[in-house]
Design goal:
This protein is an all-alpha fold. It is built from 14 helices and 2 strands. Pfam families: BPD_transp_1.
Length: about 300
């Protein structure tokens, strides 16, 4: 801080230009910024542009068709089924993952015995790939090998549980596998949030005679809002791009009953060799991602007042 002859502090001298602050960090971030601009933004723009073209096996930027691919996309029953399945899978997965993860975290937060072992067991499915998870649950839900066969061997001969071969409920069979894998990760996020709450909150609730369940619902949950928002974004991103779990369990069957948008895109681009239609479906998936990210960004940054 510089001092002039008159004894006043030179404000301009004490503050270096904001442009040159943290120069090392800014220089280190240049490769990542360049990658994001070129790879992500550039490839996204390239995909959106070619979704308006008649690209087949190879991109055809000169064959402009306007909204033709989008008209065909939304008139195709397979795409509509995939959107319906994604809506069912996504809504159920969001709610159940958050509820189950929170309940498991609340139980572990009571400082139970063998907490580390139990936490590891519950979190273990998250370490598996979706392909492994899909294959495991394909066997478990197989009527000749899995749960149905086990229950019938116990004497309940009329028991039926075969969701993967029933077009009306096959998406719920996939949902079971998704919940089994993802709930442990949500539990860890919730548990970390609970452990970050000041112990004085619990002491005050006990002094006031507030039941434990009310403390969690009316005090702990509002304080864990950032944790819930983070979990919501992570789960939503995984839901939108779900692909390998479906392929491993049902390959989209029976028929197209368990079709999802990501599988539709892959099949159109590499199976049917229709890049234009695949790019159009990819663009619609991008819009669904923005539907998740924009509210999250608003909740995290838009609602905060400047200090």
């Amino acid at each position: 801080m510089a001092v002039t002859d008159t004894g006043r502090m030179d404000v301009g001298a004490k503050r270096p230009s904001r442009l040159f602050k943290n120069m090392t960090a800014k220089i280190a971030a240049i490769p990542m910024i360049a990658t994001a601009l070129v790879v992500f933004i550039g490839c996204t723009a390239w995909t959106i542009y070619h979704s308006f073209t008649r690209s087949r096996l190879l991109p055809a930027p000169d064959k402009w068709t306007g909204l033709q691919n989008y008209d065909r996309l939304w008139s195709e029953n397979r795409w509509l089924v995939s959107i319906e399945n994604l809506a069912i899978f996504g809504s159920c997965s969001l709610v159940l993952s958050l509820v189950i993860g929170f309940i498991l975290a609340a139980l572990l937060d009571r400082k139970i015995r063998f907490e580390n072992t139990i936490r590891t067991i519950i979190l273990y499915p998250f370490a598996l790939s979706f392909v492994v998870t899909g294959l495991v649950w394909q066997w478990l839900l197989n009527p000749d090998l899995g749960l149905q066969n086990v229950v019938r061997s116990w004497g309940w001969e009329t028991f039926t549980f075969d969701p993967l071969n029933n077009a009306d409920i096959v998406i719920y069979g996939i949902l079971i596998a998704g919940i089994w894998q993802g709930s442990g990760f949500v539990m860890v996020l919730m548990l970390a949030g609970m452990r970050g709450i000041d112990e004085d909150v619990w002491k005050a609730s006990r002094v006031e005679g507030i039941p434990t369940w009310k403390t969690y619902i009316f005090i702990v949950i509002p304080m864990m809002r950032p944790v819930f928002v983070t979990a919501l974004v992570i789960i939503s991103a995984g839901i939108i791009k779900v692909y390998d779990l479906v392929v491993a369990q049902t390959s989209g069957g029976p028929g197209i009953a368990s079709e999802v948008p990501a599988k539709y895109v892959i099949d159109k681009m590499f199976g049917s060799q229709n890049l234009g239609l695949g790019f159009a479906a990819s663009t619609m998936m991008l819009l669904s991602v923005l539907v998740v990210l924009i509210p999250w960004a608003y909740l995290e940054f838009g609602g905060k007042k400047e200090r």
